[in-house]
Structures are given as C-alpha cells and as structure tokens.
Amino acid sequence: MGSLPVLASPECAPERRAKVSAFDLAPLFSAQRRHLDHFFDRLDMSQAAAFAQALLDAPGAVFFTGVGKSGIVARKIAQTLASLGFARAGFLAPVDALHGDIGAIFPGDVLVLLSKSGASDELLALAPCARAKGAYLISLTSAASGGDCPLSAACDLNVHLPLQGEICPFGLAPVTSTAIQMVFGDTVIAAIMEARRLSRDQYASNHPAGKIGKTLIFKVKDVMKKQNELPLCKEGDMIMDQLTELTSKGCGCLLVVDEEHHLIGTFTDGDLRRTLKASGPAIFNLTVGEMCNRNPRTITAEAMAVEAMEKMESPPSPVQFLPVVDDNNIVCGIITLHGLVSAGL
Fold first, then answer.
1. Rounded distance, CA 78 to CA 72, Å?
2. Where is this site: Catalytically relevant (predicted)?
C-alpha cells in the first residue's frame, strides 16, 4: 500500500482555533454550482432514460451497491426506491456479497453499481459473480466508458455521470461526485413515481410513521375531540353561565348548537374578552347566541388532518380550532391546533 506520512499527535500540534466565514463559503458554493451545472448540461438523457426504464421493467429485485461514500449513496437510493413499493429493492454490500450475500440475487434481478472511478476492485470482483447469477448489471460512473472505466465494460448498461471536479481543496474527497450521484438517483426515482402514477394513498401505505406518515395517513377523525370532550352550549344560554364550559374543555371556545346538535356558531375566549370590553356589566344580560360567530370555518371527519391545519392557517386570519360536522351540519367533534401539534403534524 506504500508509505503513509507520519502525522504529529494532536497534543503536540500547536493550538489554533479554525474559523469558517461567509467569505470562505461563498466561492465554494459558487464552484459547487458550476460543477453541478456541468453535470446537468452534459448528462446523456438517453442513458438516463434507459436506466429508468430498466428499473421500471425489472422482473425481480433491484439491488444497489457501492464502496465508501458511493456505497452510502447507493444505500439511500435503494431505500427510497423500496419506499415506493413498486419492487423489492435493497443495498448489497460488495464485500459481504462476495462472502455469501450474493445468494440474495436471482435471475432477472438488477444490480446497480455506483463508482466514481469505475475501477473499484470490490465492484470489479462482484460484477462477474452477479452476472453468473443471472443479474442485469448497470454501472453509474463518472469515468467515461473505455479503458479508464473497466466497470462499464463489465456491465450491460453504463450511465456516465459527468464530473468536472471535486470542490475539495485537493480535488480528491467525494464532495461533488456524491452530490451528483444522489441528484441523479433521486431524480430518476421521481420519474418512476410519475410513470407508475403513484397515488398519495399508495405512498402513505409505506410511510406509517414519522412526519410523512402522519401527514398522509391521519384524518380529522383520528385526532379530533368528541362526545364528552366537546364544549357545547345552546344559543339561549347566558354567556356568564358558560364560563366553566368555555375554559374546562381545553378548546378555547364554545360550539353553539340547537337541540339536534346542528351547529349554529362558535364563541371563543377572544369573543368573551371583546364582549366584556365593549359591554362591561351588560355582559351579564347577554346570551351566547347574541354574540357568537354564525359563520365559522368547519371541516368533516373524513378530511385529512393536514387539510385541517391548512384551513386553520388560511386568510383572513388564523384560528385555533375547527368544528367537525357531518353532511347535515351536525357537530360530531372539534379539532384544535394544539391537538394537531401534539399528534406530530
């Protein structure tokens, strides 16, 4: 492997606090943009389309592999493809594959090999073994096909990812090439999503947890308050008689209903303060029906919870809750901003 330089131990090195300023960052981001533009301007779209079609048409599983940072990108792309639910997709560690894990590959599977140089020893060793198993091989390299890219010759399809250079001070660390690999892989996956006409429900079925899952799966009925949790009153009730109901249910409002629970309007703690300021002692003689908002925003129980949040935040002014009503305007619940946030939305 040659001789590596001997570095001074940290305790012997002179102490100096390193700093990075905006002045230092600006030219690096500009250089990164130029390198990415170089990639976009020179990418062969016919190669990209062939790659996307191969993934779409794969009769079996799709495996991604790579060494080092390219391996990390390969794992991420594999996980994103797997999350769509169109095909079995996964990451195959090249060294582990050569020690038994290649048994996961069956005839008709696709193996995508990511390599900046196109000359990684581990991938060159893996390619003929995967071919012997009946896999279709695709290489993604930044070295053009030919003698400088032996991996492309070992594969059925090569996609050249044009690389002008790395923004690393030595031009060595893969800080631009990996960005190109990631952009390419994710963009192709977005194209596959469109080609397969992936629906929100299909996507949601593979993301039951986390922010994505909650946004796509949770409906209003899943997070709303109902039955005894509802702050209900009649329009003929005196305002001051309903203070306990207004404050005890944690909604900051009253839902004004008739005898059959049809929604008449809403009365909020803000309405209480404004009425008290405007009417003074006369508030003791006012009914909820006289001061309530008779045209409140509402939502249905089957609406998505994220839609409720958007409706709360919509103009002309945000609100903290929405009455939940059915098709006959009968109250069946209330959803609050606090409840949405507590649910992780």
1. 10
2. 69, 122, 166, 207
